[in-house]
Specification:
It is built from ten helices and eight strands. It is an alpha/beta fold. Strands 1-2-3-4-6-8 form a six-stranded mixed β-sheet, sandwiched between helices. A two-stranded parallel ribbon has the order 5-7. α1 packs parallel to α2 (73-88) and α4 (137-147) packs across α5.
Length: 249
């Protein structure tokens, strides 16, 4: 299989698959470049209400495929940062479904998702210290926000891999599933996400990411967007709400 990003949309969930199994799904330069426009297209699709990022087969992503990065380290790193930032800015809920290795650039992508679910036995590592590379400031801040300064320094200083127990304890992952249960749990959880209000989710995502200066905008959306009236009506009528407000990129 040629290295590529696969994607599909089903039941309002977009699934993006990192597919380079010959190298544990390492990201080539072309794959880094392809991710932002793919995310833009999926963000603009009103039929997409959540996104799952995962890897082909038994691993998530082992980082960057160094053999395809002909540019300087700084330029190559720039490709990864642009992809990471595009994923972090995706306006709908994102979830990384992790099996096997989630290392280097793979960990960078997983950290840029809103949530991370992992299968028991997955391994996580942030490995620039093994290559003498300065980890980007944006990715460092994102890692610190997830696991705290001490755990981030442990990962960055050592480049050591950690298992799912430690990843869960530090907040790097949100749920750990037994072998064979990851896909089922991801499907179950995304069914919950897509039936909830995108208005609530989009505002919460902005606020949680530190963008706290748009209270007036979100108050206007709550007043005029229709989801609040529908949610209250559905509660009083004891039925499932039919939310219609749509986030876009």
């Amino acid at each position: 299989m040629e290295p590529q990003l696969l994607h599909r949309v089903a039941d309002s969930v977009a699934t993006v698959v990192i597919a380079h199994p010959a190298k544990r799904n390492a990201m080539t330069a072309a794959m880094w470049r392809a991710l932002p426009p793919l995310l833009d297209a999926l963000a603009a699709d009103p039929g997409v209400r959540a996104l799952v990022l995962t890897g082909e087969g038994g691993t998530f992503c082992a980082g960057a495929d160094i053999s395809t990065l002909r540019a300087s380290p700084a330029e190559a790193q720039g490709l990864a940062v642009r992809a990471e930032e595009a994923l972090a800015a995706f306006p709908k809920p994102t979830l990384a479904a992790v099996r096997g290795h989630c290392v280097g650039g793979g960990a960078q992508l997983a950290a840029a998702c809103d949530l991370r679910f992992a299968e028991e036995g997955a391994l996580f590592g942030v490995t620039p210290a093994k290559l003498g590379i300065v980890y980007p400031a944006s990715a460092t801040r994102r890692l610190v926000s997830l696991v705290g300064p001490a755990a981030a320094k442990y990962l960055l200083f050592s480049g050591e891999l950690i298992g799912t127990d430690r990843a869960l304890r530090t907040g790097l992952v949100d749920e750990v599933l037994p072998a064979g249960e990851l896909d089922k749990r991801v499907a179950e959880f995304t069914r919950v996400l897509v039936c909830r209000s995108q208005l609530t989710q989009a505002a919460a995502k902005e606020f949680a990411d530190g963008h706290t200066d748009r209270d007036a905008y979100w108050a206007e959306q709550m007043r005029d967007g229709g989801d609040t009236a529908e949610g209250v009506a559905a509660f009083l009528e004891r039925r499932q709400p039919r939310f219609t407000w749509t986030a876009s990129g």
